[in-house]
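Per-record layout

source: Rotaria sordida
name: UDENN domain-containing protein
length: 355
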Amino acid sequence: MQRLADYFLVVGYDHDEERGGCSCVKIIQRFPDKDWPDCPFNPRIIHFCQPQGWILTAKHELPTFFISILTNLDGLRHYCACLTFHQTLLPTTIAPTNNLFNKKNGCSNEADNTAFLLPRTQMYAPKCLFLTSKLDCFEAFRNCLGLVYTMYIEPLSDIRIETLVGNILDSVNVLPPGGHALHFSIGADDRQVIQPPASPTVPCTGLSVCNLFKESEIDHVVTIFYAALSDMKILFFSRSYWKLTEACKAVESLLYPLKCWYKLTIFIIIFSLFDGLWIDLDDASVHVTENVKLAPMPEKPYNRILSSLFQIFKPDIHAADLAFQLNGRMNLRQDSGGQIVADYPKYKDESNKDK
């Protein structure tokens, strides 16, 4: 059995290092405060809470949730679940530290001892509830962090947040693959269930593969699959962190049982590494950069794959031209040549039924 989560963190905006609305990150609270012997804590993991930086906002944002997948040198993965919300930033008195007010620069230092208020307008600072785990129980992470957040903004006298966090870290032990479903509660009058995967190797896709086909078009997914087999760098673009994680999970699942591709989810990447296959999940577009060449797939296998996938994801296209409307599900079979054909219902003449 394994712990549901290894560490729980409260990560926030570092006001001491604030410069022009941008800041560094700091750990406000950490549970447990000592490292697990089998899973040392990596302090740099907190930088994945806000991939685009810790920035103040002028309006109150709704809470968000996403998961980062980190892979170490040994190929072991750590799933980092992050729930982000914003808090009102109260004006604070900060002494200026700009060296332009230094006498050595030949400028007046009249403002050296003059404090000022930041910010002048109402601003909101991000704060994150963050947990790490070696298990990919995405929905359980979302539910647990959601309950902790709810207790934080609407506290109850008989439920302490520390109790919820302690139950998440120490009281929930997930069975290995093939085990029975685990029913548990973290102490907030909740009822949750985790179903271990049936196999330790076969990936549990959920809706990730289906959503990838719907959002990126069928022919684009085939191109992505072919590019992965060709050992080409694949770059996903989206305004949603969650969609990035789900898309990477879907592509990896499609490649099972092949071991030719290992997924690294990088939310921010430098421009010089922007070579390969670009997939825009928001606009459902695919583009190959100029300095990379992707050999075309053989025509017959390509068309056969597309035909099979269209029958699965868009069966209405195949049924649109049928002479007789099918009230039920179309029965498909393979002929002697390996082609998939449909069994049409036999036409019955009802005109002479009573004669």
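summary: The helical segments are 138-153, 161-170, 208-216, 218-229, 241-254, 299-313, 315-319. The radius of gyration is 27 Å.
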